[in-house]
Inverse folding.
């Protein structure tokens, strides 16, 4: 079994499966779902193989078409990409298992194109993570973005308008990134990341390079949902179908955060990003604003998915705060939070989709007594909520712990206050739901067999939706228990060595 | 100073076009006008890149018969790499415009209008 | 809103013009963008790639993967339009929202 082609198979298999699903689905509708699962499973196995190769043999360099860089395109997988690939393919597989019943209830007539575009979204995101060439990132970014626009637009009533706002802002972000490539190309002549990291140190005082760097930052910040450029995010996550939110929320913004780490610390030297331009200082203040704003706005919402969307904005603030602190502890906390937050948000959005499937509404005030009706679902929700607040031994505690250690190392006491305050704010809005579901007496409307209003029949989710939710919730706990192993084996090498 | 402005006037023109497109995307209220602004922005970036690759006195990047084997002088031919990148960019621009127009059709079927403030009114009234 | 848009546009324009100060002259044959990677494309196009058209050899051979990505973008846009706009003919007719 040759492992050397796994780096390209992880992108090609979902890509070709998207074509095959579109063709086969024309004839046999029932064939889409198993084919999607098979493609994503192969992708997951490839990602495990890649991570294994990176740990045992070092960085993988794969030259596409046999042309050596910088004349050809190359795929570079080191520790930073390796764990992201495993995370992305695993979450995609789990959400795909979940998706069948939910899609059949919400948008049944669009099943075949939906699965095809789902696979294309996963292709695009994995393609951004695994490549080592700047323009290749742009091409796969556009694949993922177009897929996301379409997946969001087929949702409920306000979805087309939300998708259009996302189109406009997303195109601004991608075009700024793309203009940044131009500014950097015109003074260096190369598009390969490793090559540029050799050429650029002589050009750090060049104005074109400075403006190119600023354009990269703004473009990625728009697509990432960093405050105050986040205005497309709440509407898009709320009105999209449940499966779309469950697959875009854990994955898309994290890939953009990975791209930011790549550009700040691999493409440009850490010396440039920290000392020459104080971009990391600016980012920490912007991120702190995002954390506070996201948490406060989340408290005011009654729609569950909208609340989770604002919570996502706050968590992107955590990740960027860790990047901005720019020391070893901060960056470790940021990378660990990427991993944890993907699992936590995935669980929460899957639960929201499950509640939508069973009850047809998402209003928090109507959640009374839900734990009798759907005990396992609410248990998964509670585990994920505890992790978001940051209670040991779930994973969320450890990532926030490392972020606080990073803030202490950098002597920025204001951010410790921000981190702790936001944990309290998280507790406010999550405990409100847990209290409604567990402690309040149930509303009469849920009694299904005409008995007294204490008797509520157990009406749990179907197994194909319940098991993925529980898998992700178990993942949240396991990430907390094994976090030290993950840091020691993987994340420690993903942080640049000069920190 | 005058020389500085004249020697790079292509960049000033393209930056001005880009800013026109950006203003259209953000400042206009009609959805189709926003889309036209997006198109202008993307086309201006494409023109900007192509102007990077041009060389004074060079011909198009197709080799003439005597240069086929062996060392062709790169000074005689234009830089091919920006042309390549722009082929992809044109296609991406078309695809984005297509998807955005599809979304506009969905919006029109639902709200029967394409002005953003009227759509906000309808949404407020219906409680979305 | 218009004031905000104008402000954004002016700030972005000033930043871009500031960055263009260090650009090489327009049409300079020895600018860094043209001497680092492109000479090999010009010289190797007939011997390595088999066609005298340099842009074709770069698009289809040296950077062919980007072309595959671009084709996928077109496919994605087509599938997106099918996803959003296709009306199924049912008995009583159906809107496509």
């Amino acid at each position: 079994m040759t492992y050397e082609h796994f780096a390209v198979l992880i992108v090609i298999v979902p890509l070709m499966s998207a074509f095959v699903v579109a063709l086969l689905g024309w004839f046999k509708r029932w064939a889409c779902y198993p084919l999607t699962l098979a493609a994503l499973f192969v992708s997951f196995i490839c990602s495990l193989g890649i991570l294994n190769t990176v740990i045992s043999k070092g960085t993988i360099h794969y030259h596409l078409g046999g042309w050596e860089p910088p004349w050809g395109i190359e795929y570079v997988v080191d520790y930073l990409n390796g764990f992201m690939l495993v995370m992305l393919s695993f979450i995609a597989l789990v959400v795909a298992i979940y998706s069948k019943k939910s899609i059949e209830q919400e948008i049944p007539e669009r099943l075949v194109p939906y699965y095809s575009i789902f696979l294309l979204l996963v292709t695009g995101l994995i393609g951004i993570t695994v490549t080592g060439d700047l323009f290749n990132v742009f091409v796969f970014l556009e694949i993922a973005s177009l897929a996301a626009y379409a997946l969001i637009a087929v949702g409920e009533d306000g979805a087309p308008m939300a998708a259009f706002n996302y189109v406009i802002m997303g195109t601004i972000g991608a075009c700024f990134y793309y203009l940044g490539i131009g500014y950097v190309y015109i003074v260096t002549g190369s598009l390969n990341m490793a090559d540029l990291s050799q050429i650029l140190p002589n050009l750090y005082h060049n104005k074109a390079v400075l403006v190119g760097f600023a354009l990269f930052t703004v473009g990625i910040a728009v697509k990432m949902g960093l405050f105050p450029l986040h205005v497309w995010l709440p509407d898009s996550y709320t009105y999209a179908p449940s499966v779309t939110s469950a697959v875009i929320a854990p994955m898309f913004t994290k890939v953009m955060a990975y791209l930011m780490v790549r550009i700040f610390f691999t493409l440009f030297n850490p010396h440039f990003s920290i000392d020459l331009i104080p971009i990391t200082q600016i980012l920490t203040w912007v991120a702190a604003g995002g954390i506070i704003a996201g948490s406060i706005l989340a408290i005011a919402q009654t729609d569950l998915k909208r609340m989770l969307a604002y919570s996502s904005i706050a968590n992107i603030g955590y990740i960027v705060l860790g990047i901005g602190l720019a020391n070893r502890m901060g960056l470790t906390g940021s990378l660990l939070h990427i991993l944890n937050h993907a699992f936590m948000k995935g669980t929460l959005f899957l639960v929201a989709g499950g509640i939508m499937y069973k009850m047809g509404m998402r209003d928090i005030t109507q959640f009374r007594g839900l734990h009798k009706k759907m005990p396992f679902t609410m248990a998964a929700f509670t585990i994920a909520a505890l992790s978001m607040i940051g209670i040991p031994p779930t994973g969320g505690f450890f990532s926030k712990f490392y972020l606080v250690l990073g803030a202490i190392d950098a002597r920025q006491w204001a951010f410790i206050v921000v981190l702790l305050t936001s944990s309290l704010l998280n507790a406010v809005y999550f405990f409100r739901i847990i209290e409604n579901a567990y402690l309040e007496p149930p509303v009469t409307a849920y009694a299904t067999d005409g008995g007294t209003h204490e008797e509520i029949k157990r009406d749990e989710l179907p197994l194909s939706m319940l098991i993925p939710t529980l898998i992700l919730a178990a993942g949240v706990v396991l990430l907390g228990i094994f976090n030290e192993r993950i840091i020691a084996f993987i994340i420690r090498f993903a942080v640049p060595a000069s920190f | 100073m005058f020389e500085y402005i004249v020697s790079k006037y292509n960049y000033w023109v393209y930056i001005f076009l880009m800013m026109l497109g950006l203003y259209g995307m953000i400042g206009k209220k009609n959805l189709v006008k926003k889309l036209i602004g997006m198109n202008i922005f993307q086309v201006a970036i494409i023109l900007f890149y192509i102007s990077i690759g041009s060389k004074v006195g060079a011909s198009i990047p197709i080799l003439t018969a005597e240069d086929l084997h062996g060392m062709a002088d790169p000074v005689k031919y234009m830089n091919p790499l920006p042309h390549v990148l722009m082929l992809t960019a044109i296609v991406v621009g078309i695809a984005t415009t297509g998807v955005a127009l599809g979304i506009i059709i969905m919006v029109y079927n639902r709200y029967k209008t394409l002005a953003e403030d009227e759509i906000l009114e309808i949404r407020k009234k219906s409680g979305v | 809103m218009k004031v905000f848009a104008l402000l954004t546009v002016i700030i972005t324009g000033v930043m871009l013009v500031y960055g263009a100060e260090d650009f090489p002259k327009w049409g300079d044959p020895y600018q860094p963008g043209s001497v680092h990677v492109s000479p090999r494309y010009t010289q190797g196009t007939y011997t390595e790639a088999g066609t005298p058209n340099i842009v074709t050899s770069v698009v289809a051979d040296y950077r062919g993967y980007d072309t595959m990505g671009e084709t996928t973008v077109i496919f994605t846009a087509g599938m997106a339009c099918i996803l959003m706009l296709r009306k199924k003919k049912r008995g009583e007719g159906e809107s496509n929202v």
User: Anything to note?
Assistant: Confidence is low (pLDDT under 50) at residues 91-97 of chain C.
